[in-house]
Structures are given as structure tokens and as C-alpha cells.
Amino acid sequence: MRASLLLLVPLGLTLAQRPASKPGRFLSLPNAQKCASRPKEFFFQGHNYFYSAHVPQLRNTRVDWLDARNYCREYCMDLVSIETQQENNLVYKLIRDNDVPYIWTSGRLCDFKGCEGRRDLEPKSIYGWFWSANRVKMSPTDRTPAGFNFNPWSQTGHKKLRQPDNAEFEINGTNESCLSVLNNVYNDGIAWHDVACYHEKPFICEDSEELLNYIASTNPGIRL
Ligand SMILES: [Ca+2]
């Protein structure tokens, strides 16, 4: 026990010093029991959703983007993907009604291994964004997305530029590769921002058909 604790100490220090690139982390598999009893705060077009701070055991949980995905995934969910204005309205309403400062979504910039050499994703700041929960590509960031009547990306941010602006890169070399909905942080109302993925935030989970189907097929008779 003592030996393993000693081994963990330097690893912990390494993680603390390099928040943006914790090594050796993976996506979590769902837990059948958790999937069957997952929190269901609201329902929209066949999917359940919940806000992390409304679940007693997650009330004070603020985590980086990958950990947030994994909390959701244990429940057969993933971070919320916002493909339509109706769905965006539900997310904004939850944020407004509960005075939520910000949340993680599953929005991600395709700037990792496997995204190289894809001319259809260039320039990345406009064409390189997708919903990681279902791998659906987002509309170009510089125009009104399909299914919306306005552009949900904020018109301002740290550099007073429209989002995404990758502003943190100039500060400490960290890319802003994850999509957070911020509540008036830049006096801009509730709006989408690209944010560095290591920041710790509460999150909204949405049912993952892929994970629900996986648990249903491997647990005959389970009620989800
Ligand atoms: Ca930004």
C-alpha cells in the first residue's frame, strides 16, 4: 500500500503541472446499473438530459472536458450535442433559470490525431468543429447554422473578437479546442465559446443512443 502511494505522488504532481495534457486517459464504458437509473431532468426528441449540479452526488463536481464526458458516459449518456435551435433553447433556458455560469458541451475541434490532412476541415476555426458525442460535423462557425435563425457563437470574448478565437493560445500556448456555453462572462449573454479543455466546469449530459444500445444488447431484459 505504502509503495503504491509513493508511486502515485510523482504522477499526481505531473498531472497537476500539465493540466492540458494529462497522459493516458481514455473514454469510459457505460455502467449498466447507472444507465438504468440515470438522472432524467428533461426530455427532448427521444433523449433524456440532466445538469450535473442537479444530481446530488455531482452537485459540486466541476471537471475538465474529458472527465465530464466520462461522467456522462457511465450513465449511457455523453456531453450534450446542440444540433438545433430548439435544443439550444432548452440548454439556454436551463442555464438562465438556474443561473448556471457555464457548462461543457460535447463540441470539439478536430485538431488531434486523425484530423491531419483533411482539407474539408480547413481552416479549422471555421470548418473543424464537430459534436464528439455523435461525431456530427457542425455548420461553419462564421455563419448561421442549419436549423438556427442566429449564430450561437459569441460575437466577443477575451480579445473582443467573435468566437471561436483560440484566445488562450496566445496566453499560455493551450488551444481552445472544446465548446462551452458561457453565461454572460463577456457581457455577451448566453453564448458559445471555444475554451481550453482543461478548465473545470459543470456539464449537461444527453442520452447516447450508441451507449444505450450497447448496454441493451449486452444486458437482456434491462429497462433503460
Ligand atoms: Ca474563445
Automatic annotation (TrEMBL):
Signal peptide, first to last residue: 1-16
InterPro entries attached to this UniProt entry: C-type_lectin-like (IPR001304), C-type_lectin-like/link_sf (IPR016186), C-type_lectin_CS (IPR018378), CTDL_fold (IPR016187)
The entry's keywords: Disulfide bond, Signal
Record-annotated C-type lectin domain positions: 44-206
Keyword Disulfide bond: yes
UniProt-listed PROSITE patterns: C_TYPE_LECTIN_1, C_TYPE_LECTIN_2
PANTHER family (alphabetical): HL04814P, RE43931P-RELATED
Designated name of the protein: CLECT
